[in-house]
Amino acid sequence: MNTPDEIKLRLDLPGLPELAPLVEDFASRALGLAEFTGKRRDDLLAAFLCGVELVERTLSHQGDAIVPLEIGVTIDSHALEFRILEHGIPLGGDLNEGAGGDITDRIRPNTIFDRLWWVQKGHEGSELHLRVKRDHTSIEVLEDVRHRLDREEAENAHADTAPSDMTGEYRIRDYQQGDGLEVARRIYEAYGRSYPNSDLYVPDRIDLLNREGRLHSIICESPAGDVVGHYALERPNLGPIGEAGQAVIDHRHRGHGLMKPMRAAVEKAGAKIGLLGIWSQPTARHPISQRMNLKFGSTPTGLCLGTTPANASLRGGVAGESEDAGHNARHSCFLYWDPIIEEPLLRAFVPAELVPVLAPLYQARQREVNFETNQDAPVGGHSAISTRFDPARGVAWVTLDQITSGAFDGIWAAIKAMETSASAATVFVDLPIDDPGCSHLTVQLLSEGLRLAGVGPRFRKVDDERRAEDVLRLQFNPGPVDFAGLVVEGDLGRALADTVIGQGDS
C-alpha cells in the first residue's frame, strides 16, 4: 500500500463555549500524533487554545455572539499546522490594521509557533494559521500514525463486541410493522444522510420490504422498550443466499456486545428460510466489522475496491483519503461468506497465478475445489451479458452466464459503456468460475487493466432455484480509490489485499 505523505483532520464547531473541552482534546490528540511531548507539547497546546479564545473574543466584540468555527490540522513529515476558520465578520488584515489582525502578536506563548498568519477565504471566512516544525522528519512515521488514528477512531466509535452486565436486559426480536421509523432514525443518527441505501430512510419502505421478505430485520430493544439496534438479512431478488448488513447500534447503547446476539438471530432466520449461506460486505475503512465477521465464523472471499462514494461516512468513524486530502477517493469493502449448509465439490477454471490466493480462501470456508488452470479458448455460441448500474453508489455490474468466443468483446464493450455513458466509478465483472473458458477470458481481461476482486460466493443463479454457484469477480476502477485509508484484519484478508492492490501496481 502507498504510504500517505500527510494527514489532515478537521473539527466543525457551532461556536458554543461549552464545546471548549472538545477543542482541547482534538488539539492535544493532534499534537500527540505529531509526536510532540513534554513542555513543548504543553506550550503548543496553550498557544493554540489561546488563539481560539482570541478569535472567539474578537468576534464577540465585533457583534458576532455565536459564530461557527472550523478547526483543522495538517501533519506531514516536516511540520504540524493548525488552522482556525471563522465564518463571521472578517478578521485579520494587512499590517495588523483590521479587527483581529493583532491576534498573531497576542497569542501566548507567542514564540512557540514558527509562523502565524491570516488567510482571507472569501465567502468561507477568515482563517488563522499556526505552523510549527516537527522534530522528527522521518516520513515512515506517518504510516504508523495513520494506522493508529484509524484503529482508535473506529474502535472508540464502533466497538461493541464484548458483553456487559446489562447485555441480558436487552431484547432481540423480529421486526414488527411500524418499527420502520425508529430504524430510519438509527440509520440517520449513525450515517447522517450519507447511507447509500435510501430505502433505510423511509419507514413505509422498510415496512414493505419486510412484508415482502426482501428484508428480514432483526430489532434490538433496550430495557425500556426503545428500538436501539438493527441488523438485517437482505434478499432483494428472493434468491437462495442473503446479505447480512445494515447493522447499527444507538451510540448511547454501545459497549454491551449487542451485535453478537443480533447476528445470531440473523443467521437463525437464514437457516429457517432455507438459505445456502449468508454473505456480508464489511468496510475496509476500519477493522471492527471485519473482526466481527471473523468472530461469527465468516471468512473473506473478496476485496471490492471503490464500492462506496467518498461522501459516505459513519458518524464518528474513520476519515479516509477523501476527507483528509480533499480527493474524491472512494471507500472499499470486503466480501465475507458464512455457509449454512455443506457446499458441494467445485471445479474452478482459473489462471495458475490466481490459485495461490484463491485456494486458502476456499480452504477457510471448507469447500473442496479442483482447480483447472488450462487456458483453452472458449468455443462459439452466444453469451448472455447482463448489466446493472446503481447511480447512488456509482457502481456497475457486468454478469456473464456462459463463456463463448465472443465473450471478451461483449464484456469489454459493456465495461466501456458503463464507464463513459453511465460514468461508473467502479465496474465489477462476474464470470462463471465453473465454465471451462473462465481461465482464458480472465487472462484477457487482466491484460486490459482489470484486477482480481476475489470470489462472489454462490452469486450466480443456476437452473435449480434452490442452487447457486460461485463467480470469479474481477474489477475495473476508473474512479480514485482510497488506498491510504484501507485497513485489513486477518492473515487471509491481508494476503488477498496484497494480491488485489499489487495487480494494480504491476
Task: Please explain how this structure is put together.
This protein has 506 residues and is α+β, with helices and mostly antiparallel strands. The protein has three domains: 6-139, Histidine kinase-like ATPase, C-terminal domain (Heat Shock Protein 90), CATH 3.30.565.10; 164-275, Aminopeptidase; 276-506, no CATH class. It is built from 13 helices and 19 strands. The strands form four sheets. Strands 6-7-8-9-10-12-11 form a seven-stranded mixed β-sheet, with helices on both faces. A five-stranded antiparallel β-sheet has the order 1-2-3-5-4. A five-stranded mixed β-sheet has the order 15-16-17-19-18. The longest helix is centred in the N-terminal third of the chain and has 24 residues, at 38-61. The two termini are 13 Å apart.
In short:
With 506 residues, the protein is α+β, with helices and mostly antiparallel strands. Helix content is 31%, strand content 27%.
Label the structural class.
Answer: alpha+beta
Query: In one word, what is the shape?
Result: globular
- Based on the structure, what is the oligomeric state of the protein chains? single chain
The pLDDT mean sits at: 86
How many angstroms separate the termini? Answer: 13 Å
- The main sheet orders its strands as 6-7-8-9-10-12-11
Poorly predicted runs are: 137-159, 315-326
Cα radius of gyration in angstroms: 26 Å
Percent of residues in helices comes to 25-40%
Strand content: 25-35%
The largest β sheet comes out as:
7 strands, mixed
Tell me the number of strands.
19
Domain count: 3
Number of helices: 13
